[in-house]
Design goal:
With about 220 residues, the chain is of the alpha+beta class. It contains two helices and 13 strands; from the N terminus they run αβββββββββββββα.
């Protein structure tokens, strides 16, 4: 009787970690699944964006793939924010896809909509070449000793995110209730660690409660 309960707990534990960066050896990936600024939420189902860091198993250069596969209609992403720990001044080069209009790195140097300080900013502000639905941008990040795992770091928290965020991005061109002309905007991010804890604790609590119930029922 316990196998279904274990399966349910495992499912809930998996849901509790949705959107948090996942890693295996040389890859760290973030799904952007919630709107945190109180602005407009993208129209399609989450994840709306993805960022994947891949160091190929060696230090010094990390390939970053930014994807807007979850956007729809007139939506486009204008800026991405990331953290690196320990901090490194990062050089960014463009490999393929949409070309960024600017990049910068500074320790806690960039604030995303008043909700946390980040170390790396990548801009796509060219109105003639929007980072729109279905597009991607592939970049190479270089710094001494840089690895993908160094991007598993939280921002210096502020505003709506006192516990920090792994990453953030701004999406524009969102349709609103008043108009489908694409004038809405919102800030999105992966779920922060502290945001996943309530679901995690709920899953563990449910496992304990149901386990106790079944022990009483079968005894």
């Amino acid at each position: 009787m316990r196998k279904p309960l274990c399966a349910l707990a495992a499912m809930l534990l998996g849901v509790s970690m949705l959107g948090v960066g996942t890693a295996n050896a040389a890859v760290v990936s973030y799904d952007f699944v919630f709107e945190f600024s109180g602005g407009d939420q993208p129209a399609g189902p989450a994840p709306w964006l993805n960022a994947t860091f891949d160091d190929g198993g060696s230090a010094g250069a990390v390939e970053l793939t930014l994807s807007a596969d979850g956007l729809v209609d007139k939506e486009f992403v204008t800026q991405w924010y990331f953290n690196v720990e320990p901090f490194q001044l990062i050089s960014v080069s463009h490999d393929s896809g949409v070309m960024p209009t600017g990049t910068a790195s500074a320790s806690n140097g960039f604030k995303a909509d008043g909700d946390g300080w980040f170390d790396l900013l990548i801009l796509y502000m060219d109105p003639g070449d929007k980072f729109a639905a279905g597009l991607e941008s592939v970049l190479t990040l270089t710094a001494a000793g840089l690895t993908a795992d160094m991007f598993r770091a939280l921002s210096l928290g502020d505003g709506n995110s006192p516990n920090g965020l792994f990453a953030a991005a701004e999406i524009r061109g969102i349709a609103t209730e008043d108009c489908d002309c694409g004038k809405g905007s919102g800030w999105v991010a992966p779920i922060p660690i502290m945001g996943a804890l309530p679901l995690l604790l709920s899953a563990l609590g449910l496992l304990g409660l149901t386990g106790g119930f079944w022990r009483r029922w079968v005894s």
